[in-house]
Amino acid sequence: MELIRRNMTFHDAGNYCVSLRARLVSIHSNAENQQVYALCKNVNQNCWIGFENKPSTGFMWTDSSPVTYIHFQPGEPDNWNGVESCVIMKVNNQYNGTWSDQDCDADYDRSYFVCKIPNGAVAPQTTTPVIHTTTHDSGVSILTTLPHNVPSE
């Protein structure tokens, strides 16, 4: 799991996770919920999770995994004004990792989010330069930049 510290709409966050060969996090137990909560609480930000209410099917995980656990705060989901169908984890002391449905694409609901790489998938590789310094007997330093593949964070 990885916390992405970028404020995005739900659908933009989901697309960002896919670009990392991941999905918005699905949560299947209290232990997983606590892991996600710890990531979000550490930066004191509400976070999108990959739970979405589709008109034809109801709430589903965006990674198509089965719904085996839910943790909505009291009174949620409420689909306020008929526009809330995406789920965010709340992190203030009153809600302690409970979930609330929010407007998927409203600017005022942009939030951080958590991506989860599916089992067996490999995170994309990025090329990061490595700088080597060589100092010759004459006292002249030469910087050499070499490509080096490292996993993306």
UniProtKB/TrEMBL annotation:
PROSITE patterns: C_TYPE_LECTIN_2
Residue ranges of the TM segments: none
Pfam families for the chain: Lectin_C
All copies of domain C-type lectin, residue ranges: 1-105
Protein's name in the database: C-type lectin domain-containing protein
Domain of life: Eukaryota
SUPFAM superfamilies: C-type lectin-like (SSF56436)
Gene3D superfamilies hit by this protein: Mannose-Binding Protein A, subunit A (3.10.100.10)
